[in-house]
Amino acid sequence: MNNLPTEPVGSLPRPAALQAMIEKVDKGECSMEELRKEQDKAVEDSLRRFEATGSPIISDGEQRASSFATYPLADTLGGTGLANNLAPTGGQNFAIFADGHHRQLPRLTGGPFAYQTYAADYLSKARSLTKANMKQAVIAPSMLALLYPLDTQLEGYSREQFYADLVDEAEKDIRKAFAAGATRVSVDFTEGRLALRKDPQNPWTGRGMLQSFIDLNNRVFARFSPAEIQKIAVHTCPGGDCDSTHSADVDYADLLPSLFAMNAGGFLLQLASEKDRERVYKLCGEHSRNSQTVYIGVTNPQNPRVETPEEICREIITASKYIPKERLGTTDDCGFSPFSVDAKPKHGSPDFARDIAFQKIASRVKGTALARAQLFT
Length: 377
Hints:
Layout: H1 16-26, H2 32-52, E1 57-58, E2 86-87, E3 93-96, E4 102-104, E5 107-108, H3 119-127, E6 133-139, H4 141-144, H5 159-179, E7 184-188, H6 191-194, H7 210-221, H8 226-229, E8 232-236, H9 252-259, E9 266-269, H10 277-287, E10 293-297, H11 309-319, E11 328-331, H12 350-375
Parallel strand pairs: 1-6, 6-7, 7-8, 8-9, 9-10, 10-11
Antiparallel strand pairs: 2-5, 3-4
Helix pairs in contact: 1-2, 3-5, 5-7, 9-10, 11-12
């Protein structure tokens, strides 16, 4: 294993021109072919600028994905190209954010459940455009479990039948990503912290679903060998959309014991924006296992201020007091824009936010190198 590995979560802000094109598609004002050409341009730009940061592993910035959660289900965030057995209305709110806006999932109407798009479909298009190592983020089955109604059974399609199909599809999503050339895969699990929030406006968060989420995800991880598991990480954060969060008020102490019970080889954790980072570093050291690498978030995608390499280095050195340096890595707190349409209001525009994202990534790479030199020489 490389000493002090560093990697992104996955997404980047989509250029303003691409976001405008997405909205036109949803209004029927332009074609999917036109949208794909704009996505091609955004992917090529993302790869070139990612390479320039010096990052040892890059992504396509999820420029083709409707969102981190809905890419298997629909072509756009507005629901264009929705998969079979799903309805665009009546689904559960995934999250209600601190600024008051919300994101909603489609509604499952029957079975069988199957992905319409796999993350590898995007990766395979990007893989030929760069020689750099690439990672791929995929959605956790626990997130998509929320497609099924909370309190009722669908006629002819039980919850357990749905879970069986979902686990099969999630495994396939990961395996196809590796087959398409991913060096590493991370599984997005932002619903973990949210499951503990008990928001009266969002019923599922008060149902004590965290353990069932952990169990469902572990059903997928159980299908991989120990060597494969070391290439699979879980990402968790309190959300990041329109520069707002959905569960930053939930104490990490309530999540981490369950989080590290997932049988993944690594964990990418939001930490740069955490109020008491040192306390959480200590919790990570106490609850993570010897086989698990802890990637601490050292940049905050919701704040346009760019962290300096020296600041990042100091955080890593502090974390190494509690997490063995051999099991320590770095990442960003969250994807820079998990949803394809995101105005990035604290930044002023998605294009400026995109510029800032690459600066933050470059700073993370440099800061990690500074800490590596101190810790391993």
